[in-house]
Amino acid sequence: MIRLIYASSATTAFNENDLMQLLGKCRANNEKRDVSGLLLYAKENFFQILEGDEGAVEKLYADIASDTRHNGAIVIDRSEIEQRSFPNWSMGFKNLETFDRRKLRGYNDLLNHKLSKEEFGNLGQEIIYLIELFKEF
What we know:
By secondary structure, the chain is an alpha+beta fold. The radius of gyration is 14 Å and the shape is globular. It has four helices and five strands, in the order βαββαββαα.
């Protein structure tokens, strides 16, 4: 089993309705593939953890990377895992633009501005840390 974490930039801003439609599709696709994870959205950036069978996760990521609603996708981490961090979520979701940051101890504003592909790569470990805070939330 693997965990894949990636970041990308939306080609246009997503409103709440757009995000809910995307989330519905993500959950349906992930349930079919037995993939779990978490999707975060902030300032036209997507951050996502995908967990599951290596073949299923890699195929799903290939589909995601070719989606024209975003660009600049970069894998921040690809690791073998013993167990899932989000076993009960076909796809958990947080819109960080409306999220009350005070509820999550250790959260900082790193993800609250539009990041470039280079920044995704340079800030990889910090992004992983922030994303993993949500497994306890």
